Fold:
Amino acid sequence: MPRIIRRKLRNNKGVASRVYKTPRKKLSPIKRAFAIGAIVLGNASHNQVAKAIGVDQSGISKLVARIQAKADAAGLPIWDPILYENDLGRGRPELLSQAQKDAIIRIATQDCDRREKEPWQALAHGDFNELGLPALSISTFKNVMYEAGYARRALGFKPTLNKD
Structure:
């Protein structure tokens, strides 16, 4: 007797595997300086340096062009260490300095009334106006308090209204 399978048949199509981009390597300042020194001052080929460092040849070519353009724009010699330092990262710069964050925390936690205020109440009542801060949003205030280790706890037990 044939066995009856009551499962829905799945259509198993051949799915193309995803091709990921080449993994990128961020070279340290020492490796960047070595590569530029070997190519510009040591007469090594781009391909030799690429194999020695472990990156592709096009990355080395772009690195050389970028460093030489930076040196020409700043009027610096190619061996100046400032050319090889890491540039600032991506993303938005910090909105508040650490001193401003400390002042916000000090004001928000100074007495019982201010500790019990909701974030929107503290901003609406102008608790932080004397600090001369940029426009502070509720989420920024919450993030400052959260990063400092303060968090709103869940409300405790609420008794029922009826006596049953």
